[in-house]
Amino acid sequence: MSLHRLEISTQQRMELVDLTAKLKGLVRQSGVREGICVVAVMHTTAGITVNENTDPHVRDDILAALERAVPSSGHYTHAEGNAHAHVKSSLVGHSTALVVSDGKLQLGSWQAVYLCEFDGPRRREVQVKLQADK
Amino acid sequence: MSLHRLEISTQQRMELVDLTAKLKGLVRQSGVREGICVVAVMHTTAGITVNENTDPHVRDDILAALERAVPSSGHYTHAEGNAHAHVKSSLVGHSTALVVSDGKLQLGSWQAVYLCEFDGPRRREVQVKLQADK
Amino acid sequence: MSLHRLEISTQQRMELVDLTAKLKGLVRQSGVREGICVVAVMHTTAGITVNENTDPHVRDDILAALERAVPSSGHYTHAEGNAHAHVKSSLVGHSTALVVSDGKLQLGSWQAVYLCEFDGPRRREVQVKLQADK
Prior knowledge:
The structure is a homotrimer. Chain A is of the alpha+beta class. Helices cover 26% and strands 38% of the residues of chain A. Chain A has 3 helices and 8 strands; from the N terminus they run E-E-H-E-E-H-H-E-E-E-E. The longest helix of chain A has 14 residues, at 56-69. Chains in contact: A-B, A-C, B-C.
């Protein structure tokens, strides 16, 4: 079965949680040599993005820049206080499509796959679908 | 044949049109049990996003936040008056990748798939590709 | 083999490089009639987007609007001076999913696929994965 469900407990109100090691492990276990990997979060105040895997300041800068563009303290009509998190989710996107080749997730040297938490801490479900070439 | 073309007539200058029921119907009719679904809009002043399916205020907040970040009345060099709509399209993205499992489109309880109209009202084409596992 | 690696030498600090002709050529050569195409950049200060293929002003407007929302001269904690480029990468996304049907990449009349350079000029690798239906 090529669909995996990851349960992630986020720790902060807003944070980027690195999923790369888990995803690489799933690809390895799957035996898929060539194919596509779709990573999707099942929530509307979170997202999936690919970005720098080394300097944690980059994650801080991404969250801060999103916060400047879409302030959590701004005026919104949605009454739950997390409207900003819904907007941020649509900006980064709820899913990403990755390539699998030679049995490995294809990422650049500096790329990691992140779950973006915009309204935590919460328990989040991420689906990882591996589709092998025919 | 696993490619479907939806014709959507949008009603507003900017709006989010819920495609979820149509997509679920296509998955059901296709008989695909396990696979990937790509939803893509064929236009450059529209987009596809996944977000909250209940409170319509969230849709308003998304459109308003995009409008604050990229005002339709701002200064642009593109002469047709819809430059803001092109930018918004690149921010939310023209397509999204979804998972199909157990014969169902995999979405969280609160997730809907929306066509984002940024320069309507217009007639829009959305392609829905279902690719079954081998 | 259905995975192709494009090497692109960008010329500007920020620019959108049209990949459409190359992608159409790869689809033609592949012989894939029906399937999915994933286009992904292997870097964290670049992105992939689909937008207008005719008026080059639209590309300028997209870059200018991103620069207004996430100024390259803003304050960031990442020390390399390209934090803005990382943020822009997460906004447009590092990859996109496209449909192949009838042996052709499915794009609207005005759509092109662009490599977004946010921290150039540099040599960039773009992966193009074609997955045929079974």
